[in-house]
Amino acid sequence: MRTKILLILAYMISFFVVLEVFSRFYLPAKAGIDLIRLVSCDATWRNFWVKRHQTRSLELFYRFDVFDPTKGWALKPKLVNQRAFGSKVLNSNSKGIRGKEYSYERSEKKRILIFGDSFTFGDEVSNNETYSYYLQEKLPSSEVINLGVHGYGHDQMLIYLKEEGIKYRPDIVILGFVYEDTQRNILSFRDYAKPRFVLVDGQLELKNSPVPKPEKLLKNEFYRSRFIDLLTIICQKYRQLTKLQEKEAEAITTAILDEMLRVIRGVGALPVFVYLPTFNAMIIPGIKLTREEEYFSSYCQSRRINHLFLRPYFLSKAQSGVQVKTIQHWSPVEHQIAADAIVAYLTNIEALLPSNLATPPEAGAWQPN
After folding, report:
1. 3-state class (DSSP) for residue 205
2. Residue 202, by phi and psi: left (phi above 0), alpha (psi -120 to 50) or beta?
3. Who's near 259: CB < 8 A, 6+ residues apart?
4. Helices 154-163 and 244-266, interaxial angle, to 10°?
5. What share of the chain is helix, strand, coil (3-state, %, to 5)?
6. What pTM did the predictor assign?
7. Which end of the chain offers a freer environment for a tag, N or C, measured as fewer CB atoms within 10 Å?
């Protein structure tokens, strides 16, 4: 009997060894953007990063990234005319913010902070081609600070808001909302390892913080089971198909946005949420809300947040003959359209001080033309 048990154990161990060996060859070979498009989860993003790191001498994701223990990554400080995205130019201040230096001390100008992901940060455009830059040009009596960072989820934006944003004592805080970011809120690895929140008894609890340094992560990577990674990918694909992943993402996003609102209103600032459509969703005809827009609209209306949809503006421009870019990131044209729409909206609601919040005028009204 003992011999049979030992044989069974030996067969099981051999079986799992074979699966592990297979996974260690198969997964690195398949690791790439196509696998991520099929299943976006910690395992696919981490394997992609490891493979990319081994073939390109990048510390994190882009050359202008720097490791950040609380958020995973951030923009390197003191960049001067750094070439990025081909021929584009990137500059950052001493605090790793895209643009010029900003003092924590307030001037007479109103201060507007903008949080968001790569569309707000301005992937594929220069500093003077982002919608935050155009906002600054159109609002000379205000000071516009772009706190967007590529690849960020709302969880990282919340941490950034608490760590750095509130120090600027803003009058208005704009969130450039991209629906895809809700999925990032359930990840512990995206462009690099990142923190994430989970709900425990209805309260946010921070996990994977501080984030491990790249050298430590790579050192431990050899001991990580690729077979378990493969099982994780299969499991996440099932959760994706059954909408369980979407429900989890929206639940944690709602809790994160609630905390952002608490912080923003707690410092006496006015929150303004702007829905940034991406890719083909930018020019979907008609005024009916998409599934993603419905989530955003429902959340903002239930919390009485001034909010704006940009799709009608992109659609109107496209119908008038403007070539709207619906692949990859926005060009300067889309950033200009976004800035024009945001300026018009801020002017319309007279979003100057939080005192207006009690009776917001037609918050988030849909404007198809």
Report:
1. strand
2. left
3. 158, 204
4. 20
5. 50, 15, 35
6. 0.91
7. N
The DSSP letter of residue 288 is: S
| Cα distance between residue 248 and residue 198, in whole Å | 10
Q: What is the per-residue DSSP string for 136-183?
A: HHH-TTEEEEE---TT--HHHHHHHHHHTGGGG--SEEEEEE-TTHHH
Q: Is 203 exposed, middle or buried (0-12, 13-18, 19+ CB in 10 A)?
A: exposed
Answer yes or no: is pLDDT of 366 > 70: no
Q: Where in the chain are the domains?
A: 78-213+237-358
363 — pLDDT class (breaks 50, 70, 90): very low
- Supply the DSSP symbol for 354: G
Report yes or no: 140 and 243 within 8 Å, Cβ to Cβ: no
Q: ∠ CA(107), CA(111), CA(112), 5° rounding?
A: 165
Choosing among 3.20.20.30, 3.40.50.1110, 3.10.105.10, 1.10.12.10, the CATH entry for 78-213+237-358 is 3.40.50.1110
Per the prediction, the chain carries an average pLDDT of 90
Taking CA atoms, 190 is separated from 15, 46, 67, 112, 152, in Å, by: 31, 7, 13, 28, 8
Name residue 66's beta-bridge partners: 74
pLDDT of residue 360: 33
C-alpha torsion sign, points 95, 133, 152, 296: positive
Peptide bond preceding 312: is omega within 30 degrees of 0, i.e. cis? no
Question: Which residues face 203 on adjacent strands?
Answer: 200
The identity of residue 346, as a single letter, is L
DSSP three-state, residue 272: strand
Parallel/antiparallel/unpaired status of strands 196-200 and 142-146: unpaired
